[in-house]
Write a structure and sequence with these properties.
By secondary structure, this protein is an alpha/beta fold. It has helices at 2-17, 23-44, 46-49, 66-71, 73-76, 83-96, 125-139, 159-162, 180-190, 199-210, 230-240, 347-355, 385-395, and strands at residues 102-103, 106-110, 120-123, 148-154, 169-175, 194-197, 220-224, 244-250, 253-258, 264-266, 271-279, 284-291, 302-303, 306-311, 323-330, 335-337, 343-345, 365-368, 373-378, 399-404, 418-420. Helices cover 33% and strands 25% of the residues. The strands form 4 sheets. Strands 4, 5, 6, 7, 8, 9, 10, 11, 12, 13, 14 and 15 form a 12-stranded mixed sheet that branches. A 4-stranded mixed sheet has the order 20-19-18-21, with helices on one face. The protein has a 3-stranded antiparallel sheet with strand order 1-2-3. The longest helix has 22 residues, at 23-44. Bound molecules: zinc ion (ZN).
Length: 424
């Protein structure tokens, strides 16, 4: 009961009070929260206690990343939980598909591990409550007091996600390890108001609806976990007759959500985002996150492995948090053209070029194997593949082998349109 009330508190706080009309006001709020969390972490986290960091100066705190976090897991977390124990519990949950186990009161989860290392996250009941109150405020199409059903497709469930469940809000996890056809039948019976899934799955569900295999009328569709491209967004939105929103959530926190106007805003009331610009003109940057609330597993100056593009124009919704025009993907998937030194080529250039040659929605994959070799898998309906190859070679001057695209059968594998399979 206590946690239910607290969820409601965080819901109302996010919805009605944590709204800022100027950057100055937001910064003032962030600095107050920051000083508080840094002081706590300096005291409670054995890792930070040993370091000469200043609570008044965030830049004196070291940069963190997934690898560093995992190798210092035991001393970083304030719950005294060793990495071995957390990994064991989280991995067991993934194999048995029973996602309820905890260590003491703490929920444990695994990130998908696209960059090689699987990250482990630890959440206390209070943090879980705060997360669910916040996410409900950000995504529910109707008030929290109205009955709503959420259908949630993901590679793994977690206590964290299940915490949004209540007498009023129904939540059903659809396990992507199970046959997809089964899901279509149960989705039809469930009739969700909110449909949450990775974009590749949203596309397959929209296809099923188009082929009249099911008929659902969600009020809201939310893309999670992978990059949402415009062609998929438009197709899904047309089929379900509603806007496709995005929730950009990672092990490191709830990073960004779409507003009513369809723009993706960084959740700067929850975290400070330092921007490491890759090139100033295009607004591409790598975010460095400092979560203002998490204390079980502190996220301080954590460098994400993602590339985001900033949109400087103000959003008509009135939220002054940074707008992200799109999530480009992982830093590991930036391609490289031969040269001395090799020149980076952002995945977005490849995607835009290929989409011009594909009918409505483009399922394809471009993979670079070395500084001289790449492969492009295209669906049969591609128009003028030779022309496309010519254009691609101007963007990335390497040998490109053409193959036929096939829809992967295992939906639990992350689908990337552009990837790089070698180290630079
Ligand atoms: Zn907005």
């Amino acid at each position: 009961m206590f946690y239910k009330l607290l969820t409601l508190y965080y819901y109302l706080r996010t919805k009605y009070f944590l709204r800022f009309t100027s950057r100055k006001q937001l910064k003032h709020y962030q600095q107050k929260k920051l000083r508080h969390i840094l002081r706590r972490m300096k005291k409670q986290s054995p890792f930070y206690r040993e370091l000469p960091v200043k609570c008044e100066d965030l830049s004196s705190w070291p940069l963190m990343n997934k690898q560093k976090m995992m190798s210092n897991f035991d001393t970083l977390n304030t719950a005294k939980i060793p990495l071995n124990q957390a990994l064991e519990v989280a991995q067991k949950a993934e194999t048995t598909r029973d996602f309820t186990p905890k260590i003491d009161e703490y929920s444990v989860g695994l990130s998908s591990g696209t960059s090689g290392i699987r990250g482990v996250f630890l959440i206390s009941p209070l943090e879980q409550t705060q997360w669910s109150g916040t996410i409900l405020a950000k995504v529910l199409p109707k008030s929290i007091f109205c009955k709503q059903k959420i259908a949630f497709f993901l590679r793994a469930d977690n206590n964290l996600y299940e915490s949004v469940k209540s007498k009023i809000i129904q939540f059903k996890f659809f396990d992507l390890k199970k046959p997809f056809e089964q899901h279509i039948v149960s989705l039809q019976n469930y009739k969700p108001d909110i449909l949450v899934a990775p974009p590749s799955v949203l596309y397959l569900l929209a296809k099923a609806q188009e082929q009249k295999k099911m008929k659902i009328k969600p009020l809201k569709v939310i893309s999670v976990a992978d990059v949402l491209y415009d062609d998929v967004k438009i197709f899904v939105s047309n089929i379900f007759n509603c806007k496709v929103h995005q929730v950009y959530q990672a092990t490191e926190g709830l990073i960004a959500c779409t507003c009513l106007h369809g723009n993706l805003h960084l959740n700067e009331e929850l975290m400070i985002v330092e921007k490491k610009y890759l090139d100033k003109n295009s607004g591409r940057f790598v975010p460095v996150l400092t979560d203002l609330n998490r204390s079980t597993q502190p996220i301080i100056r954590y460098e994400l492995n993602d590339i985001l593009t900033e949109d400087k124009s103000p959003c008509p919704c009135g939220n002054i948090s940074t707008v992200i025009s799109h999530i480009e993907g992982r830093c590991d998937d930036v391609l490289y053209a031969p040269g001395n030194p090799p020149r980076p080529v952002f995945p977005d250039f490849i995607v835009r070029a290929v989409l011009k040659y594909l009918p409505s929605v483009g399922n394809f994959q471009f993979c670079q194997f070395s500084l001289t070799e790449a492969e492009l898998s295209l669906p049969k309906e591609c128009l003028c593949p030779e022309e496309l190859l010519k254009e691609l070679k101007q963007i990335l001057p390497v040998n490109i082998k053409l193959t036929v695209w096939q829809q992967p059968l295992d939906l639990t594998i992350k689908y990337k349109r552009v990837k790089r399979n070698f180290c630079i």
